């Protein structure tokens, strides 16, 4: 795989709003679990099989990087095969690194498997400064030397030695990178103030399935006892809680009734709590959830994003759409990323009444949103605009859809399946139509 892996920046979504969503939809595998697990597949010398992997742009980029490093990869239906037996490079390619922040997940695995890794400043959604100092400090604590020359960084270690690592902030990515490096380190590593997201438990389960010895994921203390080697395994990724949450919010915002299957309701308790406060009806039975909202939602006075198990930053923009249609005045505070209110201007173009002061958004509910042409500025902001378009009166065009393709497997098909009137306008498809 080579060249540009990104989606077409000219694709648009055209949505005829005002149709309540209804029907049943299964939830695809979690992007944020699949990405570190794909990186960790390098730790076993042989073919790893990973099931329930969604077809997303970020997954394509990760597989593209693995191929450039010498692995063979294949994504057939929902299963990915990664064979790293012929790994030949420890240099993460700059062009792909710039396309996706999650490329930094390869630092830990490459360092511990090969003794070195070179990388560049990663790209990703423009939602804040997005430092990676905690990743580097963690690897240094395990014994790595890091040198920087111009934009390129090289990290080397003849041997990693387990130690206690205290994270100043429970960073999801840093917790995962340290876990992946520590599995083959000598001795025991303890991560204190670790992130507790379900995706970290999924990584622990995957690494343990390959023969690692990790306990504690899901709590704030994770203990990793180094082993000599890891073995290929077959593993299934958990359902995507952010995709599930996006659909739940869309169901409520369009005053519809949607059943989600193959989801994990316990991963969504903070969202369920907020939606119930807004008057949304939710019933849960094992891995099935029904969400319906027949009346105007109520305002929710104070929602604060915070690391798991608190309200996820990745659902902040989508919930803001629901609150912009609610009866009353709501306040949302963003504490995880600095610049995560870029959707606000676009929602206001659609008739919302939202103002921002520092990291707080003040939302005065309006009875209706109106279709407009708006731009997805990042992945979750884009998902929020799709929800707004589905709920709005008239036609909405969402531009810069490649951001949305990073985290949702053909979002238009997903919502069409629930009765939405929306389609993708792709210049490439239009040219082909014209040729015919
Ligand atoms: C992961 C998720 C992303 C989600 C975020 C927070 C993946 C692939 N992505 O991103 O969807 O929005 O968790 O739930 O799993 N920070 C530092 N130094 C570091 C690392 C992070 O200061 O070394 C800061 C970041 O700038 C940010 C905050 O910590 O303000 C949260 O970042 P982190 O938890 O690391 O998120 P990601 O792993 O990047």
UniProtKB/TrEMBL annotation:
Swiss-Prot/TrEMBL catalytic activity: phosphoenolpyruvate + UDP-N-acetyl-alpha-D-glucosamine = UDP-N-acetyl-3-O-(1-carboxyvinyl)-alpha-D-glucosamine + phosphate
Molecular function, one GO term: UDP-N-acetylglucosamine 1-carboxyvinyltransferase activity
Top-level enzyme category: transferase
Tree of life domain: Bacteria
Compartment list: Cytoplasm
One protein family per Pfam: EPSP_synthase
Binding of UDP-N-acetyl-alpha-D-glucosamine, residues: 101, 314, 336
Positions of phosphoenolpyruvate binding: 31-32
Family stated for the protein in its record: Belongs to the EPSP synthase family. MurA subfamily.
Protein name: UDP-N-acetylglucosamine 1-carboxyvinyltransferase
Lineage, highest ranks first: Bacteria, Bacillati, Bacillota, Bacilli, Bacillales
